[in-house]
Amino acid sequence: MQSSKKKSDSQGEDRGARENFSSATRASIAKAAGEKCSFRGCLAPTSTVAEKSNGKAGSTDIATASHIYAAAPGGPRPAPPGMSPEQIRDQSNGIWTCGVCAGRIDRREPVPSAEDLIEMKRVRETAQRMAVMDPQLSFASSYISPREWDEVFWQHLPDLDPESIRTKLLDLAAKSILRITTGGPNQSLPHFPITPLTRDIRAGFHRPANESGNEAFIAGQASKAPPISLPHVVADASAKRRATQIFRAWALRYPGGAQNGLILHVNVQIGARNPKTGEVSSAFIQVLATGHIQSMHAGETGEQLTLKLWGTTDRINDLEWKLDVSLDQGKIESTSTLRRIPWRLFDSFKNGFPDLLEELERYESVVRLIMQGWEPVGYVDVKADSDSYGDQMHPDPFDIDLQVDQATLSESLQRCQKIRLALDLERVWGGRMFSWRDAYFEKNLTPELILCASNELKDRHVLRPREGVTSLTALIPEHGREIHFKVSPLAIYFEYARSSRRA
After folding, report:
1. pLDDT tens across 401-441, in order?
2. Which among 220, 209, 134 is positioned nearest to 176, based on CA atoms?
3. Whose CA is closest to 461, among 470, 453, 452?
4. What is the per-residue pLDDT for 453?
5. ω into 110 cis (within 30 of 0)
6. pLDDT computed for residue 203 by the predictor
7. Helix (H, G, I), strand (E, B) or coil at 456
8. Which pLDDT tens digit goes with each residue over 309-351?
């Protein structure tokens, strides 16, 4: 038994000399690279479905999570002094490669340097991240070969500026779209009779001169007219795809109903996007809106489709997103606006809900980003009349034109501050329930006045159980309107003095 233990210990020491990646780290390296070989110019796919030994379906890969700095003493690219075993096993020290390129890295001369591999890893993972996280680039990637896609990133080293990369990729995708021929049978989307997307795109560039005001754009070659905005071509194509997919998903829930027009309840999310990087906020305003779709026959070219959305305000959100999309004979027209609706005190708000603060935080987060210059965007649920959020949202957001100024947004944030303050007053006044009334949201009843009224009344009166209502008058000089702060044994509230109630 003793000799067996010694042998086991010896084997453990041998294994410990090599710092291998864990299964979780290996999987992370693979996903970051999009399951493609990261070696420049390769990009071979590395995973697929395969049958297991027990006959059940599983997955397999023909790739290696290669170490940038050697996993063991004597390996290529020795680890620099001070690099710990944990750092050698970390995801940052791994690059995903196919079996062939793994041999290039470790066994063939000349062996790539660590700096070379770090650069390859950075390019592949950045390219993959932008292809997944940016909806327009995700659409554009369908029209660009993988090697051509990654080569754009290589051309933008060392900075890898997202904005210039994005512009270049959209240009490439637009040119590819315009090269697509329209020959062959006219196919349509399954169960959805409209002309193919690429034909619709090209149709927009075959306009006669008297319609566009310029010479026609024919066969993908620019005339003497000003150059066409190629990124706009991708945006236009992406918008058509998104609108038709949402329309089709809604229509399939009620077959035949779209011809007569359907009114549905639709979950939507309003967020914000960084205009420079394309990053989308992690927080969203989640509301239940009203959706409408209708289809009308439009001859041989398919159908004329309309998709509308409105009614996004609720007990917290005062931002009304109004969407109107029309697809007619290959052309898309769309308006998407965000404006503020005067907020009112909903009955459901007065009752209180445990998720009130969470809802408030999401609203505040989005509004603050918009005030910092982020652009509002909206996501639409493809499963209409659903009660839950999550994977039902279409992945491509709608751009939204902001029609609210900074001062108005600031007022909305002040209202949120007052809601938080009311919840704090409940704690200050011994757990008494705050009774929500219109007077509390009077614009000139500032948080400072509210705290002053509460503190003064607190200093003057120590209320006992079963004691009657005690009040303090706070004068609002701008309107000559008096608002009373009142405390009862069960509740605290602000109300207009009888002589100064609204008409």
Report:
1. 999 999 999 989 988 899 889 888 888 888 788 888 888 88
2. 220
3. 470
4. 84
5. yes
6. 45
7. helix
8. 999 998 889 999 999 999 887 678 889 999 998 877 655 555 5
SS3 at position 253? helix
Tell me the per-residue pLDDT of 54-79, one tens digit each, with 9 for 90 and over: 766 666 777 889 999 999 888 889 99
Whether residue 445 contacts residue 439, with contact meaning beta carbons closer than 8 Å, is answered with: yes
Pure H helices in 204-336: 209-212, 230-253
| pLDDT exceeds cutoff 60 at 198 | no
Cβ atoms 273, 281 nearer than 8 A:
yes
Can you spell out the DSSP letters for 471-488?
EEEEEETTTTEEEEEEE-
* d(C-alpha 446, C-alpha 423), whole Å: 16
Report the sign of the C-alpha dihedral through residues 473, 476, 479, 484, in that order: negative
What sign results for the dihedral spanned by CA atoms 224, 229, 233, 234? positive
Handedness of CA 284, 285, 287, 291 (dihedral sign): negative
Q: 173: exposed, middle or buried (C-beta count within 10 Å: 0-12, 13-18, 19+)?
A: buried
**pTM score of the predicted model:** 0.60
Q: Where are the alpha helices (DSSP H) in 43-84?
A: none
Alpha carbon distance 39, 100 (integer Å): 10
Beta bridge partners of 337: 322, 401
24 Cβ neighbours under 8 A, 6+ residues apart: none
Q: Which amino acid type is present at position 146? A: P
In degrees to the nearest 10, what's the CA dihedral of 106, 109, 114, 120? -90
In this prediction, residue 449 carries a pLDDT of 86
pLDDT for the residue numbered 473: 59
The gap from C-alpha 362 to its chain's centroid, in whole angstroms, comes to 13
Structural contact between residues 378 and 323, judged by C-beta atoms closer than 8 angstroms? yes
CA distance 89 to 112: 20
